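Fold this sequence, please.
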Amino acid sequence: MKVIVVGNGKVGKSVIEQLYTEGHDITVIDKKMQRLEEINNSLDVLCINGDGIDNEVLIEAGVPNADLVIAVTSSDELNIVCSMMSKNLGAKNVVTRIRSKEYAKQGQFIKKNLNIDLPINPEFRTAREIANQFKFVGDFKTESLSKGLVEIVSFRLNENNKLVGLKLNEISKNILVCAVERQDDVFIPSGDFKLEKGDRIHIVFSGKNLNDIYSILGGNEKRAKSAFIVGAGKITYYLSKELLKLGMEIKIIDSDLCVCENMAELLPEATIIHGDATNQVVLEEEGVFDSDSFVALTGNDEINILLSLYAKNKNVNKVIAKINNTSYGNLVKDFGLTNVLTPKDVIIDIILTYVRAIENSEEIAADTVYRLVYNKVEALEFRVLDNFKGIGIPLKELKLLKDIIVAGVVRKGDFIVADGNLSIELNDRVIIISFNKRLHNLNDIIR
């Protein structure tokens, strides 16, 4: 597809790199020549120095013939105007990053009346992802598919976990181990794969069995009742709104007095603390270690990592950190900090889902794309239409690609974990786990 990305900042660059690896024809528009030179030195993309709301620049970039325009500059207004102009010039689809809380409230209006196909608020989406982690207490990371009917949970096996030493075909049929990280290797395991202490495993199960799954995971059924959040930015605002709905007690600390006063007006139900979270005495005086959970959401990756490691060392049940530099991901997991979220990755997952849907003429593209194991594995959700070649055939008789797992199907509101006898039927929603395979179409899973 011909894709034009307006804005080559941190998010824009990540989007460009991911779409480039998937073989798309990319054109980049940015006002800063240095950014364009950096991306042009590493990728074979067309770069245009100019303003995303300059009609001549948009025409020079090929917007009238573009399949997709993605506006991800730092200005909401510029992104909105650029998207509207692109649509008027003939672009088939537009994706727009909109960060303001005020605009976020008008999402449906913007989509319907401003002719924007996909408005994305990265802070709101990231907050929703973080809030989703509170389904479990402890060192678990969770992804939800099919509106919560399917859960993917990842965690590390300690020496006391009852799964250690078992082969996968000896584990409860209510769950499926879809990926295993062992040191620097990643496996899409078969039934005779034996689990070892220290493995980080990713399991798929029905969201309706959430309470029954705790004994298998070795977790605590008690839900978190309180959260201590460092940093009073936009993500904190959206996250606090979600957690307050759950009846949780929220404490927020920030070193900027004006930011604290503003947050106190927006969130009267939360406790807002003006203080330096890097000061150990301040943290202890404010009762950080009396909370069930700790979330580091400052704008500084290093502070978020250090504070999270400190909270983990003090045995806080759930510790979550936001980082912007994805290269830190592999480093922090070696220190035991595994529940890390990156706003850029959240945006890219959404855009990838959208891109794969609009480029697929057969209309059986993935409805959802989640990247797991530091983007090495993908979990995809497909809706089964009548042009799928494997309808009604048991999985054991289908010739599936290597490193592909059919995790199960959602059928009539229930998730069925796959085994060899399961057949995929019309109107099912199929959950596919893929390692190093780029799937756009459900038929791509068949050799």
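The first helix runs from residue 10 to 21. The chain has a mean pLDDT of 89.
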